[in-house]
Amino acid sequence: MHHLTKDQARRIAVGAQLLDAFRPGDVVEVAEQLGAIKIDPTATIAPAEQTILWSRIGSAYEGSQLTKAVDLDHNLFEYDGAFRPISLLPLMLPSMREWPKRASTRAWLEANSTFRTEVLARLRGEGPLLATDIPDTAEVTVPPDGWYGSNQVVHMLDLLQRQGEVAVARREGRHRLWDLAERVYPQNLPEYELDEAERLRNERRLQAFGIAKQRSPWTPVGEAGESAVVEGMRQKYRVHPDALATLKQDDGGRVAFLSPYDGMLFDRPRLKELFEFEYVLEQFKPKPQRRYGYFSHPILMGDRFVGMLEAEVNRDRDTLTVEAVHEFLPFEAEEYEMVRAEIDNLAEWLGVGIRAW
Hints:
- By secondary structure, the protein is of the alpha+beta class.
- Helix content is 38%, strand content 20%.
- Among the domains are: 91-184, Arc Repressor Mutant, subunit A; 255-355, no CATH class.
- It has 13 helices and 15 strands.
């Protein structure tokens, strides 16, 4: 049983997410450690997948590096709204073959068995295809909601992706081209039984987060890693051995601006308990109810969240407009200079000037 202070737990979490002073070298290294790089088009500053990589790699990162890793080298693949390392695919396939568990999803697929067959046949004969290239012949429809429109092809493709039948072959801009998974995924991958694959996935999940509650629906890690308790916390944690080793390093930390869809922010209870940070994405709030702005980026300084960056790129004017830097507590002079320097780095990476607050 490891006994950790809150400071140590935070440092473990920050290091595991590659947000300490030791920057990774490339896109694949980031993906292998994090397990998933979220894809989202909201680009007040840059799309999530680009900001997530820049916040780790820094000014050496260019968007073409991600394209190369996905489309040319095939070191990453797209699944369920994120780019993932190909090394994870063998661990995901056993559970994909068992999906879906929910009765309503199974019923929809069964009611649309002819539609399913037609989609697969169209891809086999003509793929890769956009969803709009495939006729919607669904017998039973799902009403439009916040994620899906009325076109049932998109819904069917997403479900077939979860079953391992189809996959995203590549993108044209923000649009996905779909094909049969057997033509997209590598062949001769290692085979795992379901239980073993889940155990290994738990280990990879804990690797990405460093430390997680033993019983957490946000970050399920099972019995991966080693037992730990954190001062002031009643719940038991699991900690990754490699993350413990980083406690011997005193790197001083750095400033990082995090996309609202950054994996570091995913486990909201952990954020509150370890970092005393109650993060709320205000994107979907009415404007009068927003405190920090439509798509503000949390500011991490060392192992603490110190504020929110409210900024937006204007490509017509080639400027990064900084509306505000919301300080949770007033910055000291050195802290202000660190944040300002990172804003300068962000503008340089974006290739724009700065219109300061």
